[in-house]
Amino acid sequence: MVLFLDNSGSMEEVSTVVSNYVSIRFKKSVSSKIKGCAIKEGSVVIQAFRNQEFREGRTEYYFICDLQDGVTMKGLEDLREIIMNPKSPKKLHVVSFGKPAALGLKSLIRESGGSFRLMQK
Predict the structure, then answer these.
(1) What is the pLDDT of residue 22?
(2) What average pLDDT does this structure show over 10-27?
(3) Which end of the chain is less packed: N or C, by CB atoms within 10 Å?
């Protein structure tokens, strides 16, 4: 399991809640902190996911963020390519402390067998 954690300024107000959530739920995960949560071509999110793509035993990706930085079609295509790669498919789980998932992202989450959770700030 890999945990991607948005630690941008917009997540500061929920940092204590996120820390508690992570310490309880993700004790044995590999974590990667990301500045922002934009799912766009070439974004730090896409790069971080790609860096973990073929690491053995990492079949689930958890992304904790606020989904406030936007999603583009190309970003979703790039993310789909990583998550649904037939050589190394992943389940995508998104926990948002901000906005709900856009339709395209919800579709990818469902298709991967993952989950989406909208948390209260």
Answers:
(1) 87
(2) 86
(3) C
pLDDT at 74 over 90: yes
Contacts of 44 (CB under 8 A, 6+ apart): 34, 35, 36, 38
Q: Of how many residues is the chain composed?
A: 121
Residues 40, 81: Cα–Cα separation, whole Å: 13
Q: Write down the domain spans for the chain.
A: 2-118
The four Cα atoms 72, 70, 40, 57 give a dihedral, to 10 degrees, of: -110
Look up the CATH number of domain 2-118: 3.40.50
Phi, psi values for residue 65, rounded to 5°: -160, -165
Report the C-alpha gap between 23 and 25 in whole angstroms.
6
User: Which three-class secondary structure state does DSSP give residue 33?
Assistant: strand
Within the chain, residue ranges assigned H as helices are 15-25, 44-52, 73-83, 103-112
